[in-house]
Amino acid sequence: MYRGMIGSLLYLTASRPDISFSVGLYSRFQANPKESHLIAVKRILRYLKGTDDLSLFYPRSDSFDLIGFTDADYVGDLVNRKSTSSMVKFLGPCLVSWDSKKQNTVALSTAEADVICVSKDPVQHSKVKHIHIRHHFLNVEA
After folding, report:
1. Pure H helices in 1-128
2. What residue spans define the domains of the chain?
3. I need a labelling partner for 94 at 20 to 30 A (CA). Which of 14, 36, 38, 115 fits?
4. What's the pLDDT at 101?
5. CA distance 83 to 30
6. Which helix (H) or strand (E) element contains residue 110?
7. For every one of its 142 residues, what pLDDT tens digit does the chain have, with 9 covering 90 and above?
């Protein structure tokens, strides 16, 4: 039942970026969900029921500027102390892409969490290639 609920919510994240982070967080527990996880997923469903009028809106615009924002928290996951990277992309005033992912490595500082996030962004990657190489070198040596 939990996997079915998570699967349906993951499908909805394509049009509801407001639940992307929460659904991604609780999808990590599909193999062994606890009662507290089920309660949290039901809370997400109640939120959706109360906000069915919210959706993405794409107005007509002459602006075709592609703008991206990226950020990472520091030790956001209290279970294994990993950071979470997030990014959003806008085409003009319209949100067209978003993502949130737990980082593979444990960051030792807030600056390192941000550097890891930026080094994985293909748009910003060319500007900070030296950071990505240094990060890769440190991870291989460790």
Report:
1. 2-12, 20-27, 35-50, 110-119, 122-125
2. 2-50, 66-141
3. 115
4. 80
5. 20
6. helix 110-119
7. 999 999 999 998 888 888 888 898 899 899 999 999 999 999 999 999 999 888 777 778 787 888 888 887 777 776 777 778 888 888 888 888 888 787 777 777 666 666 777 666 666 555 554 554 455 544 544 4
* Contact yes or no for 90/96 (Cβ under 8 A): yes
Q: How far is CA 20 from CA 17, 23, 73, in A?
A: 5, 5, 16
What the block records as the tokens of 19 is 């639940």
pLDDT averaged over the chain? 78
The model carries a pTM of: 0.56
Whole-number Å distance between alpha carbons of 92 and 70 = 17
Q: Name the E strands within 9-108.
A: 66-72, 84-91, 94-102
Please compute, for residue 70, the number of CA atoms within 13 A of its CA located in the half-sphere on the CB side.
16
